[in-house]
Amino acid sequence: MVSLADSFTLIIDTEYVEEVSVPAQHRYFFTYTITITNPLSQPVNISTIQLLLTDGNGVVSELNNPFQNNDYLISSQQDFCYSNDIITHSPLSIVQGKIELKLNASESVNVTVEPFRLVTPNLLH
Fold first, then answer.
1. Are 33 and 82 in contact (CB under 8 A)?
2. CB 50 within 8 A of CB 100
3. Per-residue confidence band for 66, with pLDDT thresholds at 50, 70 and 90
């Protein structure tokens, strides 16, 4: 059985920005975009985006959440793109978490953000 959370589609794009990265100082600049599609016949609100970053050294940190206390409406059958940039201290990091969507005043659903990599080119084959 497919859950309501599974009906939402997430597409994640990442990019390493070499021009502003300084590997000699362990500063790796990445951008990422999460596109979420609302498949429902009703609008939903983004309540929170909770993402954790685990760097190559195993250090875990929480990424900022611009939606906390600032709901954003995703219309029915529409996409929403959330973009952010981050500086890590490792050429390989993993991001994962969840997006909480409000269906109405009393119902919400958590959509899982499966782990995705922030990785410099040619690090992995």
1. yes
2. yes
3. low
Give the amino acid at 60: V
How many other CB atoms are there within 10 angstroms of residue 84's CB atom? Answer: 15
Distances (CA, A) of 122 to 16, 23, 92: 11, 14, 11
Q: To the nearest 10°, report the CA torsion of 110, 73, 11, 29.
A: -100
DSSP-assigned beta bridge partners for residue 122: none
The answer to whether residue 94 scores a pLDDT higher than 70 is yes
Hey, what are 9's tokens? 């589609």
Q: Quick: pLDDT tens for 22-39.
A: 999 999 999 999 999 999
- Tracing tokens 């529409």 back to the chain, one arrives at 78
